[in-house]
Design goal:
Four Helix Bundle (Hemerythrin (Met), subunit A); Arc Repressor Mutant, subunit A; 254 residues; two-stranded antiparallel sheet; mainly alpha
Amino acid sequence: MKTDKQKQGTDLPAQIAKALRDAILTGELTADERLPSESDLAERFDVSRPTVREALKKLAAQSLIRTERGAFGGAFVRRLSYTEAQALHATSSTLLLSINEVSFDVACEARFSLERACTALAAERRDDGDLARMRAEITRQSAPGLSDEAFCASDVALHRALVDAAKNPILSYQLAGAVEAMQPLMNMITFSARSRERIVGFHTALTDAIARREPAAADAILGELELYTLALGKGIIAARKARGGMFKAQDQAG
């Protein structure tokens, strides 16, 4: 039997973590099920317990397992909620956009294409609570003295309310990255040049169309907002280039 030291040419914790992750994803290990003990896993994978412990740390970092102390404790498959998944997805999307070269127009196209995909469902399924949340953000955006940061946050909240009005948790999860990662990226570039009054106008018309259950009208308004956002972003980026400034690759138009 080889020792961990003799096997050091391979990343044993990563291999074990992958094997356990695959078992979770395939349903071999189900939500809330207790994993075998560290000693059992060490025997199964022919490694030391510290190596198993490192593998379990990797799984915990991926939010795939949780640990509990006590006589009935151990490592358990984590039951991940949609809310937690959405937060993780938004964080991953933000990191992806911040460290990779993503042009403004590509991000804009992706964000609006994804959001418009749920407009028909939102118009059909929205309830009074969804409309109230959207109108509350419109009121907030119209308040005098609202900071740029607060306006951008309200912008994200309104579009998130539109997405959630579709009443489809999988869509809400998938669009978390679009609304909460790509939209802030666009806001960061365009906030200084866009007209708040015009944005509020778009948001009001969009909410009214959803209230009337008119998906075609809502889709058309999102299309207008996309063209406005794209034109603003390209104009700002062109002006920056003309001034000879150095900017990140994601600020460059395609």
